[in-house]
Amino acid sequence: QVTLRESGPALVKPTQTLTLSCTFSGFSLTTSGMCVSWVRQSPGKALEWLAFIDWGEDKFYNTSLKTRLSISKDPSEDRVVLTMTNMEAVDTATYFCARIWADTRGFTFDYWGQGTLVTVSS
Amino acid sequence: SYVLTQPPSVSVAPGQTARFTCGGNKIGTKSVHWYQHKPGQAPVLVVIDGSGRPSGIPERFSGSNSGNTATLTISGAEAGDEAAYYCQVYDNIHDQVVFGGGTKLTVL
Hints:
Helix content of chain B: under 10%
Radius of gyration of chain B: 13 Å
Low-confidence stretches of chain A: none
Distance between the termini of chain B: 36 Å
Distance between the termini of chain A: 40 Å
Strand content of chain A: over 45%
Number of strands of chain B: 9
Number of helices of chain A: 0
Oligomer: heterodimer
Number of strands of chain A: 11
Shape of chain B: globular
Largest interface: A-B, 24 and 30 residues
Structural class of chain B: mainly beta
Largest sheet of chain B: 6 strands, mixed
Mean pLDDT of chain B: 96
């Protein structure tokens, strides 16, 4: 059974760095085609892709946010970490982690975590 | 960068057919996936690669993809189908995941 669970602070101050963890189970990120991604949804807005890391630990970022994002895999456990620097009020959102299955059918987000709400406020 | 365009809302009566469009340049050449997202819940994959259906998704959900438009169809819409529906592709030229702006379904 594939599961993903997000964890991190519910509140961050402007200019601070956000660090979120995605702990997953039921699959191996070293299996060809497997990726773990972060997606967010600001209140009233659409889903916005942020980043993903693939089975070879290659990393891909949303071009518009690339300078603020970093994604990494914890080598000792099934956990992917996302950091976002210089947080602003507009970054207030629910942050989801999700598994991407990359194959001939494209890049499919087939399993999602429940999301974690992050509010940016002083 | 690649852009996906979705109308903001669709309304249907219970039992009617709801259709969601997703426009993109030559989208028919891409693998398009559709997600259902209800408030406070995780998004759910409902259509894979244009017309495939994941395990557990009712046959009422179907898709097509051709030219510059991909379409998700819900036959016999139910109140429980009320949600936002998003299309998604991978822009392999720029290595970017792209989501459409989402369409909110109201079942009147």
